[in-house]
Write a structure and sequence with these properties.
Layout: E1 6-8, E2 19-20, H1 25-37, E3 42-59, E4 62-75, E5 78-83, H2 92-96, E6 102-112, E7 118-123, H3 124-135, E8 144-153, E9 156-161, E10 164-169, E11 188-199, E12 202-208, H4 216-220, E13 229-238, E14 241-245, E15 251-255, E16 269-278, E17 283-291
Parallel strand pairs: 10-12, 15-17
Antiparallel strand pairs: 1-2, 1-3, 3-4, 3-6, 4-5, 6-7, 8-9, 8-11, 9-10, 11-12, 13-14, 13-16, 14-15, 16-17
């Protein structure tokens, strides 16, 4: 049995959902023809990015050979090819970034190559078009999606949802304070669309991982009394202001006096006094009353 399943779905590029095991070559070819007939979008793993594939195409002058760069993708125990012209990438450099990652493809053609052997050709370009068409009217603020991380920066992440690119700001990753690059490429996460802005005939989707999960504040803030003192742990400080976490992970925004400057670092145990609740920000506002040595 193949240890290399393909994943059949039209959720997001790279989403590894609904695995399909292809038992042998005959089964793989049969499913290729079935999935080609109904434009089934699947996720396959890129095996190499420096392949050249030669295959015939039908032209007005009859059948002609075409040779171009291609991705090699794992298809059960077999391999298939995504020619550059069908990859949806602008150049080879973009293709190279997807080595060992999952891409969306649909079966395209089952044709012989110059050696007379049959080759499986896939199209990523059409797969993205199919996903975008299927999800166009579903991509609206308030909906929750399975997203896949496609790029990382110090201030946030580019993710794919429903075949569309979206932006996940670092501030919307979690209810806690998070460090840059804490999420991994190709990691699958749940997000909620918060904004869908159309500008210059293109739309910019903003998503939130934080809003797709339950807040520790909502789950446990009522057990804490205002003006009472509680043990907490410093998460992060920038200048005089920072954040501490109560045992359940509830955030407390605090500040330190000039006497405490530099004494509180990540992981420092403290006693905080809770002064008020911020229902909008899902946290307490308080002050550090003691550093626990």
């Amino acid at each position: 049995m193949s240890e290399n399943p393909v994943y059949v779905n039209i959720t997001s590029e790279g989403a590894r959902l609904n695995p399909q095991i292809l038992d042998n070559h005959e089964h793989a070819i049969a499913m290729f023809l079935v999935w080609r007939s109904n434009d089934t979008v699947m996720q396959t793993k890129v095996a190499t990015t420096d392949t050249t594939v030669k295959y015939y195409v039908n032209t007005s002058n009859g059948q002609e050979w075409k040779e171009e760069a291609a991705l090699t993708v794992q298809y059960g125990s077999m391999f298939g090819y995504v020619p550059l012209s069908e990859s949806g990438f602008r150049n080879l450099r973009q293709m190279e970034r997807y080595f060992n990652r999952y891409v969306s493809v649909v079966p395209d053609r089952y044709v012989p190559n110059s050696a007379g052997e049959s080759v499986l050709l896939f199209s990523r370009r059409r797969a993205l078009e199919i996903m975008q068409g299927a999800n166009l009217n579903k991509i609206v603020p308030g909906t929750t999606w399975t997203a896949v991380i496609t790029a990382r920066t110090a201030v946030g992440y580019t993710v794919n949802i429903g075949g569309y690119r979206a932006w996940l700001p670092l501030s919307l990753v979690d209810h806690h304070v998070v460090e840059p690059y804490s999420l991994q490429l190709d990691e699958m996460i749940q997000v909620k669309i918060t904004e869908n802005v159309t500008q210059s005939n293109s739309r910019r989707l903003i998503v939130s991982k934080k809003d797709a999960m339950q807040s520790p504040f909502d789950l446990g803030h009522e057990k804490y009394r205002l003006n009472a003192r509680y043990a907490a742990e410093i998460l992060k400080f920038h200048g005089r202001f920072g954040y501490a976490a109560l045992p359940e992970g509830i955030l407390v925004r605090v500040q330190q006096s000039s006497d405490e400057r530099g004494a509180m670092r990540t992981g420092t145990p403290v006693k905080v006094r809770l002064k008020r609740r911020s229902m909008e920000d899902k946290m307490f506002i308080g002050e550090v009353e003691d550093i626990l040595r």
